[in-house]
Amino acid sequence: MIIQARRSTPAAYRGDSLVLFMFEKEKLTGEDADLDRASGGMAARAVRSGDFEGKAGQVAFLYPEKGFAAGRIILSGLGERKRFDSGAWRRALADTARRLRGTGIREFAFAMNHCRPADNFEAMVEAAVEGILLGMYRFTAYKTEDNSGAAAPTKAVLLDPSMARIREARRAIARAKVVSDAVCLARELACRPANDMTPRKMADVARRIAAKEAVRTRILHPAGMKKLGMNAILSVAGGSHEPARLITMEYNGRGKSREKIVLIGKGITFDSGGICIKNPDRMDEMKSDMSGGAAVIGAINAAARLKLPVNVVGLVPAMENLPGGGASRPGDIVKSMSGRTIEIVNTDAEGRLALADALTYAARFRPAAVIDIATLTGACVVALGDRVAGMMGNDAELKKRISSAAEKSGERVWELPLEEEYLEKLKSECADIKNSGGREGGAVTAAAFLGRFAGSYPWVHLDIAGPAWAESEYGFVSKGPTGFGVLLLVRFLRDWAELPHGERS
Fold it and tell me: Are 220 and 173 in contact (CB under 8 A)?
């Protein structure tokens, strides 16, 4: 989709559709009110009649009298003014763009006149563009017949009379397109079925990115992992005919600086539960158990395309968790790369095994910070639902920075407690630690397990089991795999890059 910034006023726009935004329980004012009067007062009548209230997500179509420059007016609700921020603006544009899908409308225009003087103009433009592109997203790679109706819009135009602001907007549009592309890449990887998105093909995606961008990619095969003692990873992949891969993507945007951020993403391309097999109901969704890995691949790609002045490493342990002759059995004990022995009491608690070796491997990069992101536990969905990720870790400042990035990006996190007492549930009679502490506090005991392998570096764990999958579209989120984590991680990296060197760690 083409998104342009054009020096013009809404009154002068002569295209297909002009979007006017309204706050809940407020009237159109200023230039918007003038436009409505020119249209014959159609928006005011829609409000008076109760057909349009300006509620968040509300969209209405109006067809003005002859003489009005644009072909139609689209009213879009912003909700309450006191709640308006970049997130509300992103959602409003997403709701508007999604509503236009299938209408036959080819182009629409909007202005930024609802942004307050205190708002960061470029950040608000980015939010608008992300909303449009992510709200319009649909995954149709396997459809031979698309019965969705008329084609979606192909162009959106941001209008502003100031050339200086147009220049700012064009820079912001370019950045937002890169980040939105990365989210859509993560969505596509997680949407693809497990017969088409295998560990090998996931590694191929990383290689293709490296061929285009300033990214160095290395792929560890089972023999290399065995040599390093990554038996926790290998134990997960033992039941599958698809060999595991450890994908390493390295982008050095700060040249010779040794300061590195390590992002680790769980890459289980299909999770049957292994010997502790899952209930068949909704097992098809387990193709997206690599959503954390997809988010890391997307974030590294975006960092490289944006040329961010940071050094970042992405680690994605990719494998399938299937029952089979070589699969781990409940009660098996493996020695991890760290040297710690793990009793596998539940083969469906496999993601933490893969992350354990990856967390140990991360130490070789001497990281300033490590963030792992994973669809790790159903318990986190029970605790926080499907809109918010759970956050736990060992470093208060790192958690604070992630929370700040979450607020700016619209991908929300909520901190859960991580206390020493939770390790009591992970005590094993015959090994150093067991891989599950049972149902109670499952999200936290999973994080406590990971904490044993996180070493001494600053570390945060993000459990995205809830927001990685959506049962229906909402805001800028697509149905199915959502690409959650890309916006958050890229925002975190951008904020980190802007910090003075001495304040980063």
Answer: no
> Does this chain's domain 2-160 share its CATH topology with 181-499?
no
How many other CB atoms are found less than 10 A from the CB of residue 56?
Answer: 18
Q: Would you tell me the crossing angle of helices 163-191 and 291-306 to the nearest 10 degrees?
A: 150
278 catalytic residue (yes or no): yes
Q: Which of 278, 387, 479, 504 is catalytic?
A: 278
Among residues 352, 401, 408, 494, which one is catalytic?
352
Name the one residue in this structure whose structure tokens are 């209405």: 60
pTM exceeding the 0.90 threshold for the entire prediction: yes
CATH number for region 2-160: 3.40.220.10
pLDDT band at 347 (very low <50, low <70, confident <90, very high): very high
Catalytic status, residue 352: yes
179-219 residue pLDDT tens: 999 999 999 999 999 999 999 999 999 999 999 999 999 99
C-alpha distances in Å from residue 17, one per residue of 61, 103, 151, 223, 283 = 9, 12, 15, 59, 43
Q: Would you list the domain boundaries of the chain?
A: 2-160, 181-499
Annotation: CATH topology of 181-499: Aminopeptidase (3.40.630)
